[in-house]
Amino acid sequence: MDTSNKDQFKKLTPQEKDKAIQNLVKHPEDIICKSTNDLFVVKPLATRPPNRLYIEVLKNNLPLHTGDELICQYLHNRESLYIFRCEYTKEGSTPSLILNSDFYMIQRRENYRLRFPTTLASKVLIKNRANLLIPGKVIDLSTTGTRIACIKDAEHLTIGDEVNLEIQVVGHEPINISAHLRHRSEGVEISNDKKISCVYCGFQFFNMSQENEKNLSRINMELYRNFFQKVGS
Amino acid sequence: MSQYDPNEMHDFLSMTPEKGLRQILVDNKSFSNDHFSMLLKIVRTGNKESFCEHYTKNDFPKIKFSPNETKIKETFWATLTSTLGQKGIIQPVNKAA
Fold first, then answer.
1. Neighboring chain A residues of B85 at a CB cutoff of 8 Å
2. Chain A: residue nearest B82 by CA?
3. Torsion angle, CA of B60/B64/B70/B73, rounded to 10 degrees?
């Protein structure tokens, strides 16, 4: 996530954060959590001020330990996406999250497309119907679509095309996914301090397997982690 | 029981929605549905002050309890305290301080 997206994520004040936690317990929503290795869902059960959220972990046998850092997100009322970093703990038999860090919120975004940091290497191969392989770079990504910068061969892509994407992000398994080209526009990318003309292609995924959804969420959560590290929250 | 702070207990019990509270407390072993319904009656009919008073004196407000609830009156407060402690919801005052 680069600076162009910073203003879209709002950092909650301590009062807003408290209210968000109270609302989350009153109207429970699934919280998607990412530890170093696992992606899983928890349900909020209760809170104890100032920073404790008791949860139910919906998957058994997860290798979770007190002190593990989790990156979490939940969608509230289908209109506000909250993200936060927290610590997992289990005192007694009820697991809980220690919410010592800031909460960030973005409105009207169930699947917010996170801009890729320039430090995170990515590569995409777009295979069109003619089996031509067009290379590209991920500009932003969500669990429903992606925007890719193509430096060459984009003339072989037209709006509505059904393609296959192989998305490779360092540190993650390659994702093979079907997509439709929804929009395209001319642009400029900077590579090695040089301006290079490119075509931005916006793809919408379809026929997604659960595995692909999970893999995309894993990448998204790592982008959040990157964001938290940048803002020092 | 005096090693726990009943104020803290009441805050948690009165602020937590019933569904979450039930999920945390009721295990049908030491803490049953009867314990839970009794607890809700006590928390909902009184305020923090009266809750603390009943907890400390190990007695109950003048409300109607079912026959099953009446049976567990004697051990109710001790069971509640140990359940909350076991679940990691409350901690002894000296430990927390």
1. 92
2. A92
3. -10
Query: A83, A107, A131 — which closes off a domain?
Result: A107
Give A43's Cβ-side CA count (13 Å radius): 12
Residues in Cβ contact with A91 at an 8 Å cutoff, skipping those fewer than 6 apart: A66, B88, B91
Q: What does A106-117 look like in DSSP terms, one character per residue?
A: EET-SS--EEPP
Q: How far is A178 from chain B (nearest CA, A)?
A: 40
Please indicate, yes or no, whether residues A101 and A118 belong to a single structural domain of this protein.
no
A92 and A127 fall within a common domain: no
SS3 of A146, please? Answer: strand
A65: CATH: 2.30.110.10
Nearest C-alpha neighbor of A167 from the set A135, A195, A209: A135
Instruction: Report d(CA B54, CA A212) in Å as an integer.
Output: 55
Which residues share a beta bridge with A11? A104
3-class DSSP state for residue A47? strand
Please state the domain extents for chain B.
6-91
pLDDT tens track for A77-90: 888 899 999 999 99
Residue range(s) defining the domain that contains residue A204: 114-231
What pLDDT was estimated at residue A154?
83
Please, are residues A7 and A16 in contact by the beta-carbon 8 Å criterion? Answer: no
pLDDT tens digits along A129-156: 888 999 999 998 888 899 999 988 888 8
Beta-bridge mates of residue A190 = A195
CB contact under 8 A, B24 and A54: yes
